[in-house]
């Protein structure tokens, strides 16, 4: 990550040297439409509306950012429309999430978009925690044997949405997970857990802190593991938001007596990287004029260094470093490129486990 940060700094510096102040001031239009392929109130929508005023403040001329929600198809509908219709004059941006990346990675035939045609401007990572009903008597990896023969209903949005790496992880632990697909949000899944309809649940960092911590403190939920974060060497380490909660890898080793490995763990790690290290991504058409692209990069760089933004971001998205420009581009390319073997394995797993076909 440090090397990539140096690359980003060099890119920004080079761009600043080649662009005059008048050119920068005139580059972007006064109104920028920001397509969010999810409904109002969803995680990506909330993220974009949080980012908008901070980003506007840093852009020359303070252009108006208009959030345009285009839900449907788990974000595929709106993303396809952006890909086909977005103009390359600096007036169009796209905000995506894991639900946009996963179908692309799996070769879903509904996907019409191509990440090679876009330039990522920034990405906001997140973490997450898996927690379980306290009545099951499980609090550490050593306790997982108590779940032998126990069916664990899990309220989920969909097989190729944010829960995918979580389901891969729970299956690696040998748990009898029974997902109930069709939830409109992770918040709906949490409510099913609170009502006792689900025995296990998962929430991203901000939702866990804001909505699950009280359940844990009231002995109504027990954290099982966090997804951790990925360090500069590509290794999973404890999440700084949850330093006292072990990672999946730690729990697996405690239970199985060895490190996780094999094709299924490779799939888990791939989707974890794509869906969480790059949880929310801001993209623009690759062929927008270079001055406009540079304005956005410089503005985002100023934004993430702004103390007011940093203060607000800790509460909104957790204690994570937002990624910018070249850093995101490298990670995104690595994350979404699936080998044919790994893609086929995940499709076969989804079919055999949940009778879900990705065509």
Automatic annotation (TrEMBL):
It comes from the Bacteria. Keywords: Signal. InterPro entries: BUG, Bug_dom1. Residues 1-25 form the signal peptide. The keyword Transmembrane does not apply. Belongs to the UPF0065 (bug) family. PANTHER family: BLR1237 PROTEIN (PTHR42928:SF5), TRICARBOXYLATE-BINDING PROTEIN (PTHR42928). This is Tricarboxylate transporter. It comes from Zobellella iuensis.
